[in-house]
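User: My advisor asked me to double-check a structure prediction for DUF2069 domain-containing protein before group meeting. I don't want to rely on an old file, so could you generate it fresh from this sequence?
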Amino acid sequence: MSQLDTTTTSKRALWLFLPVVLNFVIIAAHFLRSGTLWMSALLLACPLMLLIRHWLAARFIQLMLLLISFDWLLTTAYIVNERISFGSPWQRAAMILVGVALFCFLSCFVFINRSLKARYGLGRS
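Assistant: Sure, here is a fresh prediction for DUF2069 domain-containing protein from the sequence you gave:
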């Protein structure tokens, strides 16, 4: 592989990491709004695991994204129940939060990419 191919692959990997990092920033803001500064700081540090080229780092990020998706669904249920009990409209909030949860869940699949599989040693038997 030439130097140009390696540079192109690295740039592509950075673009693939964008939804992953964005999810961690969004959930950190969510926890910061609830007043848990330590959790926000921890969540903002999680994408640094992507710098470690090991399959456990990739699986850790995937697990965290799954847990974050679940948290968004729990938050959706809480907000919808709260709005229904107050008689407020709830459909728009539900659609937005389910969309955020889906985006987070689908971000787990960035590691299907061939270059990221090679980077983290995934898919080896």
